[in-house]
């Protein structure tokens, strides 16, 4: 029985170390960002552990033309010449629509991936919940959407946070993401 206990504790210790190296602090920087129009997911490569950790979330992928802007493009109008996933060329977030939009290096360059995000000021987020923080509107002098200056994902909270070039620099967009190791 004692041997079984030690074997069980050893297995638990091995499993705990397989989850995430404890030496790195969370959140961690994103080193690459790709989106896939076939799976409708964006994947962020994380600077963490052995470099094979990623954060992934669901997105809408569509072409920005006037004819197809309002519909999701799971149809024949998506060119099949590029391999998926494709690199992200730009990333912006909008405090009016509560969406982040990634420009994709695909086709004619007008393909985007878009997802919902909580957009809030970091000082406000500590005082009230993120849902309540949505009622604090951004100053009107800045145009939306705004560029993202940094992107980090956190394996403890399972959230990605984009720092926004807006106002006093403490505005962020945040969304839920699956964080896992690629085998």
From TrEMBL:
Name recorded for this polypeptide: Ig-like domain-containing protein
Signal peptide: 1-22
Annotated keywords: Signal
